[in-house]
Amino acid sequence: QVRVQESGGGLVQPGGSLRLSCAASGSIFRINDMGWYRQAPGKQRERVAIITSGGSTNYADSVKGRFTISRDNAKNTVYLQMNSLKPADTALYYCNTLGTTTMQTFDVWGQGTQVTVSS
Question: Three-state DSSP class for 70?
Answer without folding.
Answer: strand
